[in-house]
Amino acid sequence: MSAHKTIQTTCPYCGVGCGVEAIVDTEKHALTVQGNKNHPSNFGRLCSKGSALAETIELSSRLLQPQIYGQDSNWSETLDLVADTFSRTIKEHGPDSVAFYVSGQLLNEDYYLANKLMKGFIGSANIDTNSRLCMSSSVAGYKRAFGADIVPGCYEDYELADMIVLIGSNAAWCHPVSFQRIRAAKEKNPNLKIVVIDPRRTASCDIADLHLPLKVGTDVALFNGLLNYLDKNSGCDKDYIEAYTEGFDHALKAAAHDADLATIAAYCGLAEQDIKLFYQWFTEHKKVMSLYCQGVNQSSSGSDKANSIINCHLATGSVGKPGMGPFSLTGQPNAMGGREVGGLSNQLAAHMELSNPEDIARVATFWGSDNIATKPGYTAVDLFDAIDEGKVKAVWIMATNPVVSMPNADKVKAALQKCEFVVVSDCVARTDTLDLAHVKLPAMGWSEKDGTVTNSERRISRQRALFSAAGESKADWWILTQVARRMGFEQAFHYTSSAEIFREHAALSAYENNTKHGVRDFDISAFSEINQQDYDDLQPVQWPVNAANPKGTKRLLADGQFFTPSGKAQFIALIPRLPANLPSKAYPFVLNTGRIRDQWHTMTRTALAAKLNQHKAEPFIELNPDDAQSLQLANNSLAEINSAWGAMVARVAITESQQGGGVFIPMHWTEQFASLGRVGALVNPVVDPLSMQPEFKHTPVKIQAYQPAWQGFILSRRELQFEQPAYVVKVKGEQFYRYELAGNESFDDYSLWAKNQLCTDTAGMPQWQEYQDVSQGSYRAARLLDNQLDSVLFIAAQNNLPERNWLTSLFIKSELSKEERSALLTGQPPLGTPDVGQIVCSCFNVGEKTITNMIKEKALKTHQEVAQCLKAGSNCGSCVPEIKALL
Ligand code: SF4
Hints:
By secondary structure, the protein is of the alpha/beta class. The chain has a seven-stranded mixed sheet with strand order 5-4-18-17-16-6-7, sandwiched between helices. A six-stranded mixed sheet has the order 24-26-25-28-23-27. Strand 2 and strand 3 form a beta hairpin. Helix 3 (108-122) runs parallel beside helix 20 (476-486), helix 4 crosses helix 14 and helix 8 (219-232) crosses helix 12 (272-284). The longest helix has 19 residues, at 75-93. Bound molecules: iron/sulfur cluster (SF4).
């Protein structure tokens, strides 16, 4: 009988940092998951991604062995090669000729060691993180205002607030459990005002009292206007401003340019009365929370946007008190932890700065290093430019996929293709970046790793190992330790456990952190001597955790003591700046990129779970109906999108939620899943001058119909490889793979091509059906094996193809009925067979047609009634906005 054990761990996806209770069957390598009811960040809730974690632990997609130039190797030989090559490159070209590019997916312990090795011992600060792409503007904003990178509030404030403003945040899809908590707070307290500020009408608007669809990049003018309004309407807390802040008059003077409502309305593309209502509400409500995310951060004025929000909270004295304050939501599970260990190339560990010689000396002494970096290194965009220019000759990329996620991603790809030595650590065998690696290092994945992560509210939680390591995979901290030792740094990299590293990380946070040397905000000194057992048992806790606050600290800065030289918070005088590259005649549309509900980052793990692939199966471009009409693009057709940097092809989705002149394309698809679907290739490599965060939310593009000679799809029980069609999208389903296809050249012999694709295995008793209409350019085929559906193929000159839902549902059947077999090539279910339609609820696999039929049949009025009848929307709640739209 299999042994089961229950282990509390943390979800590896977004910055909400939900606690997960895993029931583990080690013998069968199987898992069931549910939310940890005692974790204060989610109290038992999980979203669709967290709920599907058990489906992502399969081993077939894993990198299980070290590889050198495409050949399996062993750890000893591989580590020697990595260490020798980095050492030789440094000897020949200096420490700045090497670099690390790391990730918010790393655990604190991994992240700490990567930073220690590069900055402390190699002697370069050429280590940057993919967190640069998602939250460095928030870091810059907090540091300018508070003197330190501090998120002052916590999730509990959702329930205590009178008003919550979501700015550039589609929390309903990107931080679903936080959004559900806000929804629940509003249901309990209908007076709680919700304002959504976002160019798109997103799912988060479902609970909004007011939606301000501002033009991309105009946030500073909107919040400058608010500062003015607060001043003119007795909304400012003059005593607070006087006692605890500096620079108010300068900020107000700068904001005077944006004092007039009509001017702001014209600049931001908003209705005057809506702006006024927002300003009135902000002024009237005492407890206002501003939650902001990538729509603020991913901008060439991202730092200014963050400070324009913080300015308003300083003006009202609403910082760090219950139910109020500026709160940046972190994208990744451990983006916050990366900030703590100094993962950004301009930071040192434990919230110390490379710009401060005393901090440099302090960290060097603590680490026992005589070779510490003394100047900032390359930030993400600069780093790949430096690789392209040959300045960086050896790079080690850990747990991230920059060939997909970086702006101007084709240039990043080209840079890595010509780089002399590329090392990539990852847990999966294939990514667009791994495909370019000279050395591949198999890292443990979630469910094997053991360490800590820090979420958006400064809460440190344990991510615990559920299974032993797959194949030869190792912990990232172990790999770093071994390379460091081989580079001659044995003394400083003696670790044998993640607990030992966490202890040192905590001890550094305490080191010379006092009134004599200067008090730093990041302080987890309570863990400086933590033993293995206590580390294993560590409960979620918010830093600071020290002698004064042994149980952690919910909120910071409420006492008005800040970490600036004067001890006072700083207002920042801000002049709005439009995005760096504006639309032109050649590129008239504005591309906005972002996440979708059921996928995470570059899909390496979420795409393993069939149910997460059904909601949005293909790369898509959302367009306003008027724009679609002027471009003569039909819904569900294909469009080619070009910018000055790159091109891609995506499926057209026409929606009123998109403003005219703007389009939205998700960030997730890679060449592993879509041959022409990398949106990063289009994104302009413009960065914010302070945070160096790229402007992912605004790239001028042009759009035209993509007109292939044919379109089609294949559903196959087996995974297939294609060479011919230009457009291929792979979607994993329940016991099948779906391939959406489009080709630029017609086939001489469709039947031959179909058989070449689908009939390569010879097992069983295959039956073959086919149908061709040459005049229509239409071809259909189906292959059955022992009465079970093996594959179907549909091709049409135009995109008049059947829906896929009924056909995909046949793959779970052990045998097809006579009626089903007869109906196969029509693509339509036999009369009387229900078609579920497009999947809306991923948790319970409930389709749109099932929901609409039930709504009609039972005259349902609310999403709660739908949940009672079909369970749809009753688990993670992420699909509730879509269910409400169907009602
Ligand atoms: Fe994971 Fe979803 Fe929670 Fe984010 S909201 S941590 S993705 S379960």
